[in-house]
Fold this protein.
Amino acid sequence: MGKAQYEPLFETKKEKGRILYRLFATSLLCGIILIWSYRLCNIPKPGENGRLGWIGMFGAELWFGIYWLLTQSLRWNRTHRHTFRDRLLQRYGNELPRVDVFVCTADPAIEPPIMVINTVLSVMSYNYPPEKLSVYLSDDAGSELTFYALLEASRFSKYWLPYCKKFNVDPRSPAAYFTSQSASDAHFSEIKKLYEGMANRIEVACKAGAIPEQAKLEHTAFSKWDLYSSKGNHAAILQILIDSRDEETKDVDGVTLPTLVYLAREKRPQHFHNFKAGAMNALIRVSSEISNGPIILNVDCDMYSNNSNSIQDALCFFMDEERSHGIAFVQFPQSFENTTKNELYGSLRVIDGVEFHGMDGNGGPLYTGTGCFHRRDTLCGREFSKDARIDLKSARPGKTEENVHELEERLEILASSTYEENTQWGNEIGLKYGCPVEDVLTGLTIQCKGWRSVYYKPERKGFLGVTATTLDQTLVQHKRWSEGDLMILFSKYSPAWYGLGKLNPGLLLGYLTYCLWSPNCVATLYYSIVPSLYLLKGISLFPQVSSKWFLPFAYVIIAELICSSAEFLWSGGTILGSWNELRMWLYKRTSSYIFAFLDVMLKLFGSSNSTFIVTPKVSDEDVLLRYKQEKMEFGSASPMLTILSTLAMLNLFCLVGLVKELIITREVGLKYAFETMALQILLCGFLVLINLPLYNALFFRQDKGKIPSSTVVQSVIFALSCVAYVYY
Ligand SMILES: O=c1ccn([C@@H]2O[C@H](COP(=O)(O)OP(=O)(O)O[C@H]3O[C@H](CO)[C@@H](O)[C@H](O)[C@H]3O)[C@@H](O)[C@H]2O)c(=O)[nH]1
Ligand SMILES: [Mn+2]
C-alpha cells in the first residue's frame, strides 16, 4: 500500500481545554506556595503556644502540596483514543492473529462457578474467527465443581455461540444478556431455557458440594480428582475440552468452536504459588504449546466481556503499519456491573475518566490486570528495538502425533509446582513475583524496556465485573493495592531509580503518584486530628479571616474541592456520589493506607509476608439489600474500623466541646471564635458532617451492618482519653 493512501487504524486526540486546565493548575500552585510561605514565616517561637502543632501543619501541607504537584502529571497531557475496526477488517480480515484469552479464578466459594463460566462464555463468543480464538481457564482451587461447570459451558457454547452470531447480541455473558433483555420470541425462550437448565444443574452441584454421578460416568476427566486432597495441595490438572483443530467439535450450525482449556496448576504446601502471577505464568507456558496466540487477553473471572468487538479494537493498536511497533499492551478500564447510583464505597471513576488518559499522554497507562491485551513476547520479557518488527503471524504448534491424553500429560509438567525452580520465570520472564500488584510491576518493567502502552476506553464498556459491596472489602482491597504500589517504590524496579532515564519523566511522576498512595496516611491523619484538638484548646492554626493570608487557604481549598468534584461529575458520577467519594478518600487514607504503610515498613525490615485476600464476588441477601439501599455496611469489628470510628468520635467531641463553650458557657465570644478559628471550625465541622453515616451506625442502627458494640466502646474510650489528655 502506498504511503499516500495510508489510513491509520487508530487515532489519538489531545484533550480539549488543556490550556485552560494548565492555567488553572498554575494558579493553584501559586496558592500552595503562598500557604507554604505563610507557614514558614509564622512558626511560633520556641516556648510559644502551638509551635509543635504548627510545624506539623507545615509538614502536612508540604506533603499535600508536593503530592498535588505529582498528580498534575496525570492531568497535564490527557489524550483519547479512537479505533477504526472497519479498516482493520478490510486490510487484515483474513490474516488476523490468534488471540489467547486467560480467565483466572481462585476459589469456588467466593467466585461461584456459574459466574466464572458466564465470563468464559462471553469471551468465547467474541466477534472473532473462532479458529483463531482460544480460551484458558486457570482454576487455582483445582475445584471439581468449577471443572464441571466448564464442561457444562462447553456443551452450552454449541448453542450459545451461533445464537450470539445470528442475532448479534451484546453482552455475550448469558446471565447478563438474559437480565438485560425482555424479548420473548421463540429463539430467545429456547436458548434461555437451555441456559437455565445448565445453571440449575451447576447450582444443584454447588449446593451439594458434589457433582452428579452421571456426569462422572460420562467424562473420564473426573478421575483426575481421585488423588485430589485440597485446594492448596493437588497435582496439576489439564483438560482440553474443545480443540478447534478437531474436525468433530463444531457448534450446532457446523461452525468451528474456539479452543477451550481447563488448567489447575499443581499446588503444594511447601511451594509458594505466587497468587495470580503464578497462575498467569503457568497459563503462558501451557498455552504456548496449544495455541501460542501472539496476543494474550487476561480477565478476572468476574469480568465478563460486555462488548463483542473488543478484540478487534485492541488489534487496531497492534496492527497499524506505522504506529503499532512500540505498543506492548492495551489496557481497558475496570468497570463494574453491580455499582449503585451514588457509589457509597467510592469508585475508580476519576482514575478511569481522567488519570489514565493523562498517563496515556505520557507513554501509556499502568497494567492493572483484568481487561488488558498483551503481546505474548513483550509479556515474556522482550526488549524494545527500533528495527526488529514483531510478527503477529507466529506459527501455531501443529497437531503432534501424540493423542490428547499424552499431550495433556506432557503439558501438565509445565504447570507443576517445581517447574519454575532455577528458571527466570517470575523474574525476567512472564509476570513478576513478590508483589501484591504483580500487574503494575510487570507493566512498569515492560515500559522500562522501551515499550509504550495504550489506554482504550470505548463508548460501550469492554468489560464489566463485580466490585466490593462492603466497607471492609473495599478497605482490604485498597490496602492490597496501596501496599503493592509502595512496595514497587522500594523494589529493584522502582520508578524512582530503575525507571530514571528509561521512562518519560511525566510517566515516572505518574507512577510515583500511585506508589505514594499509602504514605498519604500520615499527613491526612495529622490534618484530621490536630486542628480539631487545637480547636478545643483554643489555639489557632490558620490565619484570621480578616488577614490577607486567609485568601490563599480559601482559594486552594475551594478550587481543589470544585476541581475534584468536577472531575468526578465529568467522569459520569453523581453529586451525592462525589460526596461519598470524598468520604472514601478520607477512610482509605486513615485506614487502608495506614496498614499498608506499616506493612511495607515492616517488610523493609524483614518481617511479615505478602498475602492476597481475594475479593468476594457474592454476598448474603441482607448485605446485598443494604448495599442496594446505599446503607454503609460496617459489620464485623476490625482494627481499621476502630481507627475510623475513633477519628469520627474525636472530631465529634471536639465540635461538641466547642459548641458548649460558645453557646452554653459563653467563655469565648462567637464573633471572636469565628474570626480567629474559622478554618479550624470548618475543618472539624466537615469531618463530623462526612462521618454522619458512621455515627448513625455507631448509635442508632439496629441491623447487622451497624458497628459492633465492642468497637463503639473502644472508639469512645480512645477518643475520650485523647480529648481529656489534651484538655486537662
Ligand atoms: O491466588 C490467586 C489469587 C487471585 N487470583 C485471581 O486474581 C483475580 C483478581 O483477584 P480479586 O480478588 O478479584 O482482586 P481485585 O483487587 O478485584 O483485582 C484487581 O487487582 C489485582 C491486583 O491486585 C489485579 O490482578 C486484578 O486483575 C484486578 O482486577 C481473580 O480473578 C482471582 O481469581 C488467582 O487466580 N489466584
Ligand atoms: Mn476483582
Summary: Residues 639-665 form the longest helix (27 residues). The mean pLDDT is 94. Residues 300, 302, 465, 615 surround manganese (II) ion (ligand 2) (CB under 6 Å).
